Amino acid sequence: MKRKIISLNKEAEYFDRSVSRALKNKVIRESYESEGLREKIAIQIHDVRVKKHITQKQLAKKLSIPQQEISRIENGGQNITTDLLGKLITGLHAKVKVQIY
């Protein structure tokens, strides 16, 4: 069993080195950071919706958009505009805090 753990640790180290090298490329780094931001927003929208006991279908109806769009947003599969983010926040009766540093 120890043999597999050692092998996995080496695989993880190799992966980390590969990612570090790839992120030195400006285009890759910008894309990676953009995806990370989209994922953070998606997770927060999902968490707030669940916490408020609102289904995707209910939120979609409230915003007059297809339920599938809510699903894509929450799964990070759709870019959203600031206008749509505003609609989501309003529909969820939530607040947003933006920090740029």
Distinctive features:
101 residues; mainly alpha; 434 Repressor (Amino-terminal Domain); elongated
What is the element layout, followed by pairings?
Elements (H helix, E strand, L loop, with lengths): L1 H21 L3 H26 L4 H8 L3 H8 L7 H10 L10
Could you explain the architecture of this structure?
72% of the residues lie in helices and 0% in strands. The protein is mainly alpha-helical and 101 residues long. It has a single domain, classed as 434 Repressor (Amino-terminal Domain), CATH 1.10.260. Helix 3 packs across helix 4. The longest helix is centred in the middle third of the chain and has 26 residues.
Principal-axis shape equals elongated
Report the mean per-residue pLDDT as an integer: 90
CATH superfamily: lambda repressor-like DNA-binding domains
CATH fold-type name: 434 Repressor (Amino-terminal Domain)
Structural class: mainly alpha
Rg measurement, Å: 18 Å
Name the assembly state. Answer: single chain
Based on DSSP secondary structure assignment, what is the total number of beta strands? 0
Head-to-tail CA distance between termini = 45 Å
Percent in strands: under 5%
Give the helices and strands as they follow along the chain. HHHHH
Largest sheet composition: none
CATH class descriptor name: Mainly Alpha
